Amino acid sequence: MTAKVIIFGQGYVGLPLAIVAAQNGFDVIGFDTNSSKVSQIAKGFSPIEDISDKQIIDVAQSGGYKVTSNPAFKEDIKVICICVPTPLGSDHKPDLTALEQAVNTVGKSLKPGMLVIVESTISPGTTRKVLLPILIKSSGLSEEDFYLAYSPERIDPLNKEWNIKNTPKLVAGLTNQAAKMAKDFYSKFIDQVVICPTLEVAETAKLLENSYRLVNISFINEISMFCQKIGVDINEVVKAAATKPYGFMPFYPSVGVGGHCIPVDPIYLSEAAKSAGAGSRFIELADEINQAMPSYFVERAKQIIGKVKSKKILVIGLSYKPNVADVRESPVISLIEQLRRAGAEVFWHDELVKGWKGEITTPISSDFDLAIIATPHNYLELSALKDVPILNTRSSI
Hints:
By secondary structure, the protein is an alpha/beta fold. The chain has 2 domains: 4-197, NAD(P)-binding Rossmann-like Domain (Rossmann fold, 3-Layer(aba) Sandwich), CATH 3.40.50.720; 235-392, Rossmann fold. It has helices spanning 14-23, 35-42, 53-61, 97-109, 126-139, 176-186, 199-230, 234-241, 265-276, 281-305, 331-341; strands at 4-8, 27-31, 65-68, 77-82, 115-118, 147-150, 169-173, 193-195, 312-316, 345-349, 355-356, 359-360, 370-373, 390-392. Helix 11 (331-341) links the parallel strand 9 (312-316) and strand 10 (345-349). Helix 7 (199-230) packs across helix 9 (265-276) and helix 10 (281-305) crosses helix 11. It is globular and about 70 Å long. It starts with a strand and ends in a 5-residue tail after the last strand. The model has no long low-confidence stretch (mean pLDDT 96).
């Protein structure tokens, strides 16, 4: 009998997981509270770059996948995966609202013997101390009646080398049996699944992975500012350093970090460190540097054109990463806002994003005083700028 799986959240994490599980013999239900997204997927249109329309249509036509905005599920469900966002709130602190709501919803339909796997990013101790009590309360079951596991997502949108299948997967369980069941599930479509000794190890490992990236990107951004002062190309410096076959990993400059992981996960770790009475000075400094990068490029813009007040500026690339349409935590948004506060007339171009906050993408042309390359999508053709001065945030010169 085909094992039935329900996956909460059908975005950059949940949808690829749903599709690959369906492709490997599972009967998958994708749930999302966004009814327009559900409607789009149901019609065979993918909302993300990593999954094609054809992949959705194929698994739907085979009967292995369907999508819904109805959170209730039947007793024949064996595995529940929770892949909902855990962003930062307006106070720049962890916001578990969506996750707690999803876990509460899961609890209402939870039956004995079901396996619940949380993939959302959380602070160490959250699965055991926060999510488990919610499941117990909303289900009326005891913790011995069901199985609870944690397995942090490792999704890098549009990464052509590393995908769900070949990226090693961490799992941990409230019990050894829960960990084994989670490993058995993922092993059906992932090459390597590693069991961590505790839930807290898996939770912290996820935060460490992206804190490492934040710290190193911040360091390169700081070195990039130094290189700009002395007239050296930071990208050539990184390229030269990367010839060393050990002890160095290349990172590259930008207007700052964005997306659902790098600017968010380290703050979860920092807040956990504060709660435990431990320090997180590297993370705090790295976050400070990256938060300041848009301001740095506003000043660079002033150096190039004298002033930005009343100047027409085109910011090229609104999303946080090249070739994706995701604007979550995009530092480009802060750059645009700060330029406007400084009095500039700011337009943006991004054919992938197309629309944002009631605004639409502006064509690239020579009708500007300055163009700022923020996110360099592959499709970009900059020749239309002609003689417009260019500030490239991905370079120091």
